[in-house]
Specification:
The chain has 348 residues and is of the alpha/beta class. It has 10 helices and 7 strands. It is elongated, with a radius of gyration of 31 Å. The N and C termini lie far apart (95 Å). This is Hydroxysteroid dehydrogenase like 1.
Length: 348
């Protein structure tokens, strides 16, 4: 009797087990059938994301080639025909300003140099004229003096056909410091030289460009304009002004034949960064003013907002990538894509 009872219990257990297995198999099939839709949906989303990234990469690659490579291979553009006979370059006795003026002279553009040191102006003017066989002129102007010097500049330029204006003049901090430690004189110099000069020079030259329906204005901003720069607060803010001013002005006057460009270079080996023994030395990362100007001029008419140099463009991209990686590791704060694109590492 006990044996029959044992086999009976075993048979019942086997039936229960088989039923459980059958239920699990059924449950698994139902779950698989339900999940297949989500898996397919995720596969579609993944494919769409991959396609978007590939298209974006292809577009960015083409844009980089179009801006930094093709102009160098396709030959020189006739800047005189495209914009006009004369170019005005401020802050043109040293650094990027001087190199940019020389690069324009290579293209046959006559140059008007504007700076505060008469002896340097005479020397650079004579050198450019003799080297590149173009006409040159110069205007002595200390932009830190404020509004009093602009009537004389306007009078000196009234009979010139200005095709290109390069607002390059600018001053930097003697060393990084807190805003409250800066003297009032330093603050006014930064405002007058970095902000007011570009504004007023543009106001003087632009009406003539509009009248002949062609012209180009280049404003030397900086990569620091793309993020807040503690300890360089006013300098960074002044460069942000130039960047905004350039873009807004281009939208206002593009339909009238005027091209306005914001140049945002990273570090170049000029006197402005002489305070640092590291960045003032020429290296693969820090081009000379001449190297930078050669590439920057080739972007004229192609991009309204650019670093101006392919090495600097790579630094910009790496900066975005570094910020993206840094922010992705934070659990509580995930910046938007726009925030990624404006929080660049400090280039100077």
């Amino acid at each position: 009797m006990s044996a029959l009872r044992f086999f009976g219990i075993s048979a019942i257990g086997l039936l229960i087990t088989m039923a459980a297995v059958d239920q699990f198999s059924l449950l698994y099939r139902e779950i698989s059938r339900s999940c297949s839709f989500y898996i397919e949906a995720l596969a579609i989303v993944g494919a769409w994301y991959t396609v978007r990234k590939c298209v974006s990469l292809a577009f960015d690659t083409y844009s980089a080639l179009r801006l930094h490579v093709i102009p160098k291979l396709s030959g020189e553009i006739d800047l005189v025909k495209k914009y006009g006979k004369w170019a005005v370059v401020t802050g043109s006795t040293d650094g990027i300003g001087k190199a940019y003026a020389e690069e324009l002279a290579k293209h046959g553009v006559n140059i008007i140099l504007v700076s505060r040191n008469k002896e340097k102006l005479e020397a650079v003017s004579r050198s450019i004229s003799e080297t590149y066989q173009v006409e040159t002129d110069f205007i002595v102007a200390d932009f830190s003096k404020g509004r009093e010097l602009y009537p004389a500049i306007k009078e000196a330029l009234k009979d010139k056909e200005i095709g290109i204006l390069v607002n390059n003049v600018g001053i930097f901090y003697a060393y990084t410091d807190y805003f409250t430690n800066l003297s009032e004189e330093t603050l006014w110099d930064l405002i007058h030289v970095n902000i007011a000069s570009a504004t007023m020079m543009t106001h003087i030259v632009l009406p003539g460009m509009v009248k002949k329906k062609k012209g180009a204005i280049v404003n030397l901003s900086s990569a620091v304009c793309c993020q807040p720069t503690p300890m360089l607060t006013v300098y960074g803010a002044s460069k942000s002004y130039l960047d905004y001013f350039s873009r807004a002005l281009h939208y206002e006057y593009a339909s009238k034949g005027i091209f306005v460009q914001s140049l945002m270079p990273f570090v170049t080996t000029t006197k402005m960064v002489a305070f640092s023994s590291t960045v003032s030395k020429r290296s693969i990362f820090f081009p000379t003013a001449e190297e930078y100007a050669s590439h920057a001029v080739s972007t004229l008419g192609l991009s309204i907002r650019t670093t101006g140099y392919w090495k600097h463009a790579i630094q910009l991209t790496l900066g975005w990538l570094a910020i993206s990686i840094a922010n992705s590791s934070r659990e509580l704060t995930v910046p938007s894509e726009m925030e990624y694109r404006t929080q660049l590492p400090h280039p100077e």
